[in-house]
Amino acid sequence: MDHSPDTQIAINRDTVVEVHDGEAIIVNMSTFDYIELDRVGTAMWNALLDGGTLNAALDTLLARFDTDRATLETDLSEFIGQLAAVGLIDAEPIAPRNDATPLAPRSAIDLYLDLLIRTVGGFTIRDDARNRRGVFPYHVGNRVQGRDMPGEAMSMIGLIRLNNVRALAERALTDGVAGDFVETGVWRGGTTILMRGILAAHQITDRSVWVVDSFEGLPAPDVEQFPLDAMWPAEQGYLKVSLDDVRANFDSLQLLDDQVVFLKGWFSETLPTAPIEQIALLRLDGDLYESTMDTLNNLYAKVSPGGYVIIDDYNLESCRVAVDEFREKRAIASPLQVIDWAGVWWQVPTA
Ligand SMILES: C[S@@+](CC[C@H](N)C(=O)[O-])C[C@H]1O[C@@H](n2cnc3c(N)ncnc32)[C@H](O)[C@@H]1O
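Above: inputs. Below: predicted complex with S-adenosylmethionine.
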């Protein structure tokens, strides 16, 4: 698509930008579409947003890069088309945004929940990542997408899936879907802390958040019964977080009270008799075939009509096969909605 030199650019109200080391990831928080930019792309993005028009961006970029105006104009026009296509900007004749433009007014609930998400997600501390080979500098793209192993963050799932939890939890509240919020597989607790924060922000006192985990890491894979779990190592030190540590994480954000219920033990032992009555939002993050199947077998029937089921690990074969088998067995026709490279969700039918 061609854009005239005077095309005015404004950032979409649902767009969130994270920049680190000169590279940006730009996410549309209502659709979870995103674009990752290298340094040149990030410079183009900044020039467009700062200048507010294609023409102003051209001037900025020509002063910086060794290229000719016509080539750059074609590139920028194409770039604007890509950004607009995923709803990251409005390329319309509307007021340009610059640094002097005040932030759009946002409600206290929005501000609180955004801050909570950024806190549990490790964005406020620019959390470095770890794996067995060492410590890696914070990489915003990986953290936004939850592709890393954060060193300090209370949740590993990243900005996109954290926002998905918020979106579906608030939808359930708005629509009056009965029941509690549950996560099976909580690690350091960050996602369940967000769930509790959502209830607090909306002053909901008659729903609980169930924090379900062994608090000892993954179970040893039962390869005979569940061959797909052979991909999981028997010992996962990184995934082992004690109940005391998770409780302390809740407490650090002043979100620990009677509306938080901890269910400690292996899913196969705790879930069959769990005193959970009704569920509005069920989030599965147990990685293994066995853990996923145990959760679905024991809790799916408790999800209210209109409630939501979120699967964190649909990218992993062990989890995906369990979900597919369960949906087939129960003839669940509700379409799977894609959140990002890993997560999916579906809504339990209302009738
Ligand atoms: C990937 S982590 C969860 C990440 C977390 N949802 C977050 O927001 O960061 C997986 C968790 O599932 C737990 N888990 C997996 N299978 C389990 C099972 N069968 N019984 C109990 N806990 C299990 C592990 O202890 C671990 O804490």
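The radius of gyration is 22 Å.
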